[in-house]
Specification:
alpha/beta, 4-stranded parallel β-sheet, 4 strands, about 45% helix, about 15% strand
């Protein structure tokens, strides 16, 4: 499924409750899928796991504030299959719905 190459997409999914290695792998896999399978330009994929690697030690509330700002600058959101197990991803989903963003699910559904 081809997407608009000028469309910015935000990756959402579970982090808390997973090991660092697990969530890093999940977000990296999602980023690769968006570039390879959905034809997004790498610069247009917003991966919040990278933020967590750059700014270690911030509170969950601080990360969430930054994540919601990043999401607000996007045109679409990619929901990993584990998103319903994450309070933060659920908040991101609700914001995306409220803003009318394209919603892409890991299961290949597009809303």
């Amino acid at each position: 499924m081809a997407m608009n190459k000028s469309e910015r997409v935000y990756i959402s999914g579970k982090m808390n409750g997973l090991t660092r290695a697990e969530w890093l792998r999940n977000f990296a896999d999602a980023e690769l899928k968006l570039v390879r399978d959905y034809n997004y330009h790498p610069d247009m994929v917003i991966n919040p796991a990278r933020l967590a690697c750059l700014f270690k030690g911030l509170s969950d509330r601080c990360y969430m504030s930054i994540d919601l700002w990043l999401l607000s600058e996007c045109d679409a959101i990619y929901m990993q299959s584990n998103w319903t197990d994450s309070k933060g991803a659920q908040v991101e989903y609700r914001l995306a719905k409220a803003k009318g963003l394209r919603i892409i699910y890991e299961s290949d559904e597009v809303e």
